[in-house]
Amino acid sequence: MDPARAAALHAALGLGGVVPAAGDPLPAFWHHIYFWDAQPPEALGPDGHRSTGHGLIPDLGLPRRMWAGGRLTWHAPLLCGVRAEKTSQVANITRKSGRSGELGFVTLRHTVRQRGGVVLTEDQDLVYRGPAPHAAKAPDPPGRPVEAQIARFDETLLFRYSALTMNGHRIHYDADYARGTEGYPGLVVHGPLLATLLMGLAARREGPLNRFEFRATAPLCLPETARLCADGVGTYWIVGEDGRTCMVGSTTA
Prior knowledge:
Structural class: alpha+beta
Helix content: 10-25%
Largest sheet: 9 strands, antiparallel
Order of helices and strands: HEEEEEHHHEEEE
Distance between the termini: 28 Å
Mean pLDDT: 94
Number of strands: 9
Strand content: 25-35%
Strand order of the largest sheet: 2-3-4-1-6-9-8-7-5
Radius of gyration: 18 Å
Number of helices: 4
């Protein structure tokens, strides 16, 4: 877990304080800048991601991919500067049809080991949709916040986060593709980036996290400003400029 990569994310997020060094626990969700699965151009689909049907995820015939949520359990601190190993498997695949069209749901289960023991288990939920964009009403916020922090995003941050995570999804850096092909109003802020900030808020309020569950409910797109909210009893959420809920998370689930 190269300390230089953690230092790069620390800089990209504009964080103050001490940069994680070898032997320090990594902040929650920062493991996503590690364990790259870089693929050659011929292995990529039109969206810039690895083509489905080659690797763990089968071809569901649904081209649009989004990170829908996840559940994480920390069994021990994941340490910066210490070699780690991640194994992944498909835990579940389901298909559904509804008002938003055909949907495919894939859950990947990741296990991270360090120094011979399991330190983190993560279920990653992905959703695959058809080519036509479908707008869905975002749920109402889960409550009244006792704390709210402003988060701002720009093209540079999205580019740097894509680079740090080896994420080739074009919705994060190709505005013409995001609008014309996927139907978004602008570049889409990474779901994992939002989750990282939400877990950072939770850790500042509650200390080191043992468990966190989150669900993406609506995309956040540039040039929107977001509010990161906490209710004081373990629920966290992100709202966009129009008040819609974009992500909900919990340390108590």
